[in-house]
Amino acid sequence: MCITEYDEARTFAEQREEGRTEGVLETAIAFAKSGLVTVAQAAEQVGMTVAEFEKKTGLLQNSK
User: Model's pTM, two decimal places?
Assistant: First the structure.
């Protein structure tokens, strides 16, 4: 039998943080698509390189 420790508060905190992170990414994508910020600015706000942001979102830095 395997006994593991489950920390409900920690689990919920991690889920909230993941949700916040995803929300920030979605907002950055929307702003970049609308032209309010550049892809480089959006990538910086979510803590990614431009290449990482482009790969994850499909948005390209030099496209309009």
Answer: 0.73
Tokens matching residue 53: 């942001």
The string of pLDDT tens digits covering residues 2-24 is 667 888 899 889 988 888 888 99
Cα-based distances in Å from 50 to 9, 13, 35? 34, 28, 16
Geometric angle at alpha carbon 37, from 53 and 13, rounded to 5° = 55
Taking only Cα atoms into account, the Rg of the chain, rounded to an integer number of angstroms, comes to: 16
Distance separating alpha carbons of residues 25 and 43, to the nearest angstrom: 9
